[in-house]
Amino acid sequence: MHKSVLLNECIEYLNLKEDSIIVDCTLGYGGHSSEILKRIPKGHLYAFDQDSEALQYAEKRLSEVGSNFTLIHSNFKKIKEELDHLDVEKVDGILFDLGFSSPQIDDETRGFSFMRDGELDMRMDRRQKKSAYEVVNTYSESELVRIFFQYGEEKFSKSIAKAIVKNRPINKTMELVSIIQNSVPKKYAITKHPERVIFQAIRIEVNEELDVLKDVLPIAIDFLNQKGRICVITFHSLEDRIVKQYFKKMSEIDDLVKGLPVIPDAYKPKIKLINKKPILPSEDEKNENSRSKSAKLRVIERV
C-alpha cells in the first residue's frame, strides 16, 4: 500500500486548528488527507486529484473519518477557478505532495514504470489526449534532446533521442527501456540506469508538471489567510529548485525599494520561510519507504 511521505511533519507544519479550511492539491490515495481530516472536525478539506481511480479510493477512506470534505476531479492548476466556483475565498493551509503514488507506478497499464512492461501512457489524467506514446513517437529528435536535457539532466540525451527516432514506432515501456540502454555505453547503462531520468523527463512533459508548479505557487499564496501555511513536498531537484527560488523571492523585500525608510505595502514580502533548509525524511522513514529517499519539504507562512 502507498505510504504518505513526511506525513507527521506535514501535519505538524500545517498548524491545524479544529476549524481550519485546508486544500490538499495532491490527494492521491488519501494518506495526508485522512490525517488532516481527523484534526479539523469543524473545518473543511478540499482535495484535488486528476486520477479518477485515486479519487474513488480516497473518497471511501475519507468517509470513514468524516463528511466535511469536497473532492475535486481536476489538476491543481485549476485551483483558482475550482475554489471560486465553490465560493471559497481564503484558506488556512495548502499541501502539495508532488510525488505520484505507488499504485500508479505499480499498475503497468499506466506506463509510469521502467521495470514493468506496459503501454506508453504516463498520463496522470486519463481524460487528456497527450500521452507518452505521442511524445516518444512524434516529437522531433531536437525536441526529445531538449526534454531529456532539461527534465532529466541526462548527458547522453543526444544519442538516446537519436536511437528513439531510428527505432520508431515504439509501443511498450520495456521496448523503450531496451532502446535507451543500448544507446549509451554499457557500463553507464548498468551503473547509472538512464531509463530512470528519461522516463521522468517524458512524464514531466506529458503532464506539464514544472509549468503547472510555476503557475500555481503565486495563486496558492494569494489564497492564504494571514498565518496560513503552504507545505510542498518535492522529489527531484528540478521541482525543488522552482519551489525554493520562488519562496525565497516572495519572502524578501523587492530590490527596487530595499533602501527606502518606509516600504510601501505592495513591496513588502507576502510570506516568511518557516524553514530555511528543507525538511528531510528521518532515517527510519527512508528505511521503511525507499520512495521517500529523495523527498524534501519546504514550508512558508503568509504574513
What are the key terms here?
14 helices; DNA polymerase, domain 1; 303 residues; single chain; Rossmann fold; alpha/beta; seven-stranded mixed beta sheet
Care to give the gist of this entry?
The protein has 303 residues and is an alpha/beta fold. Helices cover 45% and strands 14% of the residues. A seven-stranded mixed beta sheet has the order 3-2-1-4-5-7-6, sandwiched between helices.
Order of helices and strands: HEHEHEHEHHHHHHHHEHEHE
Question: Please, what is the CATH homologous superfamily of the largest domain?
Answer: Vaccinia Virus protein VP39
Task: Count every beta strand, where a strand is a DSSP E run of 2 or more residues.
Answer: 7
Shape: globular
Measured distance between first and last alpha carbons: 38 Å
Low-confidence stretches: none
Quote the average pLDDT: 94
The order of strands across the largest sheet is: 3-2-1-4-5-7-6
Largest sheet features:
7 strands, mixed
Radius of gyration: 21 Å
What does this structure look like?
With 303 residues, the chain is α/β, with parallel strands linked by helices. It folds into two domains: 7-97 and 210-302, Vaccinia Virus protein VP39 (Rossmann fold, 3-Layer(aba) Sandwich), CATH 3.40.50; 104-207, Putative methyltransferase TM0872, insert domain (DNA polymerase, domain 1), CATH 1.10.150.170. It contains 14 helices and seven strands. Strands 3-2-1-4-5-7-6 form a seven-stranded mixed β-sheet, with helices on both faces. Helix 3 links the parallel strand 2 (44-49) and strand 3. Helix 7 packs across helix 8 (157-166) and helix 12 packs parallel to helix 13 (237-250). The longest helix is centred in the C-terminal third of the chain and has 15 residues, at 209-223. The chain is globular and about 60 Å long. The model has no long low-confidence stretch (mean pLDDT 94).
